[in-house]
């Protein structure tokens, strides 16, 4: 190596860099385009298909506010809010999950594994069953509990810097505790609230109403851009706190904003749809395998989350004869994947 | 082409928790030169670098870059002038060389900002300067230790800073890769005028490659200056607590330190 190489062939390397980036960007656009198109298709199908089949024209009519006999109620009041919440909750869980996984450099560090969803879920079920609250009050309970749990895990696992593995183990312990709290609250509730009870155990979109959708949507509009705009900072923080600091990232400040936003997303989505099992956990690793090393995985993971919830809810409703809540389906998908990931991480020490 | 920046520490006291690591230290980093910092394990070399690059707030005293306290310069602004390569940065799984090098552009980009021609050029230059263009699409996990260290240096270069601090850039490398990395840093200093400050373990390599050598002991500067003036038998005794023989390096005009050890006390050199 000589100093001369700096000047000998700058143009060819520049071409290489530019071409490489263009290739990666086009691969990325392709994958995201396919994901977005799939979401639109499944969304449309879930509006049309059900116990009564409606034509695309009927669906369009309802969406445009025309009065179509029968369809206006079934689509406008039942299917549409349900499908919209599926997308909103999926986007929120996917984005928040991958944010935690990226920041803590470990796929197991997603909010549904380390107890943040469990905290929001326990608080929401407490607010609904024990205090008979509803609407925004439930969301407030969920977000306060989610943040509280996040802080508690951070504090309990902090020992001269937050260590990944310790944080995850503490989180799993806290999750187990909080799930038993939810179980206890639900066992005190009347048997007739079974549908509602299932929502807080595994997550469900049954009986979704517009106000629920709206709170979750507002949270997504507020917190989503806060996270997506920090994709670059998160990318720098993946290199270690000192490296990120040397790159001009204010690490502690970024971490606080990111944790707060991600917990906000999780808590509001959980308050609306329950802790839909494993979506936060699955979306990031699936997206990172689809996208490959082609840029930030935040937005792709969010799309994967939306697609997962839409498909799982559709299957849960119509594929098995009996109607299952969406969380049962995602749980069946997620558990084997969790085991696979633990086995793989154990061998290779992988992070996402 | 020489960097006109001055980096100075004044009465600097640093520590973690109850322990004080650096105690009332003064030092000057000469602009446009290569400075090497040596000293025994746990004498605060890394702590000093972290504080000089704003990562650790001083207990007392200050670090001045061009007369301004680095802890008062906004992080992003400082990161365009002064870069730091920590001792063990983490490469995310599966990241490619170009992607990793591109992350050095962080301080030049805003939230949501687009990738510009200038960014592409900086990455290409950094790959060329470190001779890693042929590795551009490879995954960092697959590289050898020496290649990986060149890639990290490329990331620091893409940051386009006039000052570059490196914490033990040659640790865990075999001798050929150590020389490769130090030659590369010298190239950068000579061709771009980048001021280089590095913590090194190997006294002889430090003396060989540095224009300015700083020996730390007990949280203070024991000696600083040209290697020939700093690397003396007295200095090695004081800083490392061992007897040694310092001779003239036959391949350069720099001092060469030969440690003696208990079993060779009576051998004359």
From TrEMBL, chain A:
Membrane topology, record value: Multi-pass membrane protein
An MF annotation (GO) of this entry: transmembrane transporter activity
Keyword match Protein transport: no
Pfam family, one: FecCD
Location (main, coarse): membrane
UniProt keyword annotations, A-Z: Cell membrane, Membrane, Transmembrane, Transmembrane helix, Transport
Alphabetized SUPFAM superfamilies for the sequence: ABC transporter involved in vitamin B12 uptake, BtuC (SSF81345)
Cell location: Cell membrane
A GO biological process held by the record: siderophore-iron import into cell
Domain of life where this protein originates: Bacteria
Cellular component terms (Gene Ontology): plasma membrane
Listed transmembrane segments: 30-54, 83-101, 113-131, 137-156, 168-189, 209-228, 256-282, 294-312, 324-343
Family: Belongs to the binding-protein-dependent transport system permease family. FecCD subfamily.
Protein name: Iron complex transport system permease protein
Organism field: Glaciihabitans tibetensis
Lineage: Bacteria, Bacillati, Actinomycetota, Actinomycetes, Micrococcales
UniProtKB/TrEMBL annotation, chain B:
Membrane association type: Peripheral membrane protein
GO biological process, one term: iron ion transport
Record's subcellular location: Cell membrane
GO molecular-function terms, A-Z: ATP binding; ATP hydrolysis activity
GO CC field: plasma membrane
Annotated ABC transporter domain residues: 7-243
Residues annotated as transmembrane: none
InterPro entries the UniProt entry points to: AAA+_ATPase, ABC_transporter-like_ATP-bd, ABC_transporter-like_CS, P-loop_NTPase, Siderophore_ABC-ATPase
Keywords associated with the record: ATP-binding, Cell membrane, Ion transport, Iron, Iron transport, Membrane, Nucleotide-binding, Transport
Protein name as it appears in the record: Iron complex transport system ATP-binding protein
């Amino acid at each position: 190596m000589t100093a001369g190489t700096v000047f000998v062939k700058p143009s060819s390397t520049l071409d290489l860099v530019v071409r490489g980036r263009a290739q990666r960007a086009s691969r990325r656009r392709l994958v995201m385009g396919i994901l977005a198109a799939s979401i639109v298709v499944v969304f449309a199908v879930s509006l049309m298909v059900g116990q009564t089949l409606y034509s695309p024209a009927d669906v369009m009519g309802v969406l445009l506010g025309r009065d179509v006999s029968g369809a206006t109620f079934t689509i406008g009041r039942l299917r549409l809010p349900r499908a919209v919440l599926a997308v909103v909750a999926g986007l929120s869980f996917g984005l928040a999950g991958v944010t935690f996984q990226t920041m803590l450099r470990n796929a197991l560090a997603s909010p549904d594994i380390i107890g943040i969803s469990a905290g929001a879920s326990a608080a929401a079920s407490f607010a609904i069953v024990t205090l008979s609250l509803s609407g925004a009050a439930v969301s407030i309970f969920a977000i306060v509990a989610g943040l509280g749990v996040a802080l508690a895990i951070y504090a309990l696992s902090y020992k001269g810097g937050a260590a990944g593995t310790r944080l995850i183990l503490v989180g799993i312990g806290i999750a187990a505790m909080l799930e038993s709290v939810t179980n206890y609250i639900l066992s005190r509730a009347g048997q007739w609230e079974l549908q509602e009870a299932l929502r807080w155990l595994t997550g469900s979109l049954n009986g979704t109403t517009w106000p629920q959708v709206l709170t979750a949507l507002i949270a997504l509009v507020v917190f989503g851009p806060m996270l997506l705009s920090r994709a670059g900072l998160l990318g720098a923080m993946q290199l270690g706190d000192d490296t990120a600091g040397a790159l001009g990232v204010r690490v502690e400040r970024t971490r606080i904003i990111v944790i707060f936003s991600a917990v906000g997303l999780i808590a509001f989505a959980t308050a609306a749809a329950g802790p839909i099992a494993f979506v936060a956990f699955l979306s990031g690793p699936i997206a990172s395998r689809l996208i490959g090393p082609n840029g930030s995985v935040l937005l792709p993971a969010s799309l994967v989350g939306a697609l997962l919830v839409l498909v799982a809810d559709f299957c849960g409703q119509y594929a098995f004869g009996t109607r299952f809540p969406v969380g049962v389906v995602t749980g069946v998908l997620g558990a084997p994947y969790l085991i696979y990931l633990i086995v793989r991480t154990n061998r290779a020490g992988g992070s996402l | 082409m020489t960097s006109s920046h001055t980096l100075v520490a004044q009465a600097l006291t640093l520590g973690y928790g109850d322990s004080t690591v650096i105690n009332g230290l003064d030092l000057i980093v000469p602009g446009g030169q290569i400075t090497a910092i040596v000293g025994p394990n746990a004498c605060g070399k890394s702590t000093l670098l972290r504080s000089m690059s704003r990562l650790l707030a001083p207990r007392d005293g200050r670090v001045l870059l061009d007369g301004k306290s680095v802890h008062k310069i906004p992080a992003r602004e400082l990161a365009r002038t002064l870069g730091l390569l920590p001792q063990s940065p983490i490469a995310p799984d599966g990241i490619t060389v170009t992607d990793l090098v591109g992350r050095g552009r962080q301080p030049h980009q805003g939230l949501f900002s687009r990738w510009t021609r200038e960014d592409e050029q900086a990455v290409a230059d950094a790959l060329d300067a470190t001779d890693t263009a042929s590795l551009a699409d490879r995954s960092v996990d697959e590289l050898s230790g020496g290649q990986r260290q060149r890639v990290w240096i490329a990331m620091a270069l893409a940051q386009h800073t006039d000052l570059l601090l490196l914490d033990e850039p040659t640790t865990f490398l075999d001798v050929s890769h150590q020389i490769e990395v130090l030659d590369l840093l010298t190239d950068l200093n000579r061709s771009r005028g980048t001021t280089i400050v590095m913590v090194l373990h190997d006294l002889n390599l430090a003396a060989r490659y540095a224009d300015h050598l700083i020996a730390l002991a007990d949280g203070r500067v024991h000696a600083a200056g040209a290697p020939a003036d700093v690397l003396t038998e007295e200095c090695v005794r004081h800083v490392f607590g061992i007897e040694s023989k310092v001779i003239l390096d036959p391949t350069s005009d720099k001092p060469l330190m030969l440690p003696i050890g208990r079993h060779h006390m009576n051998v004359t050199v």
